[in-house]
Amino acid sequence: MSQSNFSQSVVHRASFLDRDSLEIPILKILQADGTTYDKAQLPQIDQALSQRIFDTCVFTRVLDERMLAAQRQGRISFYMTCTGEEAAVIGSAAALDADDIILAQYREHAALRYRGFTTQQFMDQMFSNAQDLGKGRQMPIHYGAKALNFQTISSPLATQIPQASGVGYSLKLQQKPNVAVCYFGEGAASEGDFHAGLNMAAVHKVPVIFFCRNNGYAISTPTEEQFAGNGIASRGLGYGMHTIRVDGNDMLAVLAATQQARAYAVKHSAPVLIEAMTYRLGAHSSSDDPSGYRSKDEEAKWRQHDPVQRFKLWLVNQGWLTEADEQALYSQYRDEVLAAVKTAEKVPAPHIDLLIEDVYDQPTPRLKQQLAELKQHIEKYPKAYPKTAGRL
User: Fold this and answer.
1) For an engineered disulfide with 158, which of 8, 113, 188, 358 has Cβ 3.0 to 4.6 Å away?
2) Closest Cα to residue 159, out of 186, 184, 125?
């Protein structure tokens, strides 16, 4: 059996390694006051890119604020915010090519916005109306946009990780100069799909960027109760892939790391793992109360590392943003989101006949029978299905 891919030295007494045997540095470029560290190497960035990134930050903050309030009002059933993790998501998305394929978990709506998803498209999906690209079949925040190379989000945890390896393998076979980018949280890295997906990508040498948002909690479970190893980055090394750990609240560091990861993945047709150390400032979801498992003091400490504020200060230092610019942007998006909510609420639900489309090339006799039985049920209990009963 060949073991030529192993790097090893020889010893003659038992010598064990532990988690402290491997020191993994963390990339930091931008300080909390908006200045950069001495000798820091900046990413490829100019004024236009910077302003597009900040625009996406502001939109995401407004969307999260408004839609969480809409959920509390009973206007939508569910919501998850990106608050506190914007640099990890937007900084990485800004380093990609438009033809790179994104496989997200469920907190990457900022990446979809950066790609060009409109405010109305966000609302149509969350209200599951007839204009929703997913035809109303998904719960809120489970976006997908084929035109933007953003694969539809699924609720089961970590399913997108082995799928990303398959997408990367497809890109390799087609000899396309692109990558698959797979987002997930550190909690998802405890699933078996994580290990299967990374091993497949490493063995078959496929161009995939595995992007872990290590935000401190898997819902209510802190990292120290999830794993005993040296974070998620050590696992990338264990699977034989290029790996980097980055300050996930540092927009410039994330952008630099992802730009270089993408260049390597395309050139060598090989996977890269990025672990972004960040913090979820909001609740896990609209169904979660974080006060049950973490303190207000802890949250306040992390608010001092707000990634949007840090990047804003850097823009101000560059002379590319003023307080008036920022206020105007927030005002614009608050009005835009509210208007889109009102529009989406008035659009009817998708027609029930669409329920059996897209499953097969043509609906099977069994599907047609089930649809007919469903219509009979709705006709019998019309009050239970107010959005559908009058449109059979």
Assistant:
1) 188
2) 184
Q: How many Å separate Cα 45 from the centre of its chain?
A: 22
The total of other beta-carbon atoms located within 10 Å of residue 191's CB is 16
pLDDT band, very low/low/confident/very high, at 231 (cuts 50, 70, 90): very high
Mean pLDDT score across all residues of the chain: 96
Integer Cα distance of 160 and 180 in angstroms: 11
What is the end-to-end Cα distance of the chain in Å, rounded? 66
Residue 359: what pLDDT?
83
Six-digit token pair at 154?
């699924």
Q: What's residue 1's pLDDT? A: 45
Secondary structure (H, E, C), the chain: CCCCCCCCCCCCCCCCCCHHHCCCCEECCECCCCCECCCCCCCCCCHHHHHHHHHHHHHHHHHHHHHHHHHHCCCCCCCCCCCCCHHHHHHHHCCCCCCCEEECCCCCHHHHHHHCCCHHHHHHHHCCCCCCCCCCCCCCCCCCEHHHCEECCCCCCCCHHHHHHHHHHHHHHCCCCCCEEEEEECCHHHCHHHHHHHHHHHHHCCCEEEEEEECCEECCEEHHHCCCCCCCHHHHHHCCCEEEEEECCCHHHHHHHHHHHHHHHHHHCCCEEEEEECCCCCCCCCCCCHHHCCCHHHHHHHHCCCHHHHHHHHHHHHCCCCHHHHHHHHHHHHHHHHHHHHHHHHCCCCCHHHHHCCCCCCCCHHHHHHHHHHHHHHHHCHHHCCCCHHHC
Mean pLDDT of 321-344: 98
Distance CA 162, CA 167 (A): 9
Q: ∠ CA 70-75-79 to the nearest 5 degrees?
A: 55
Report strand pairing: 180-185 vs 242-247.
unpaired
Q: Could you tell me which of 135, 13, 119 has the C-alpha nearest to residue 66?
A: 119
Q: How far is CA 341 from the centre of its chain?
A: 23
Q: What is the pLDDT of residues 178-211, one digit of tens each?
A: 999 999 999 999 999 999 999 999 999 999 999 9
Strand 221-222 and strand 217-218: the pairing is antiparallel
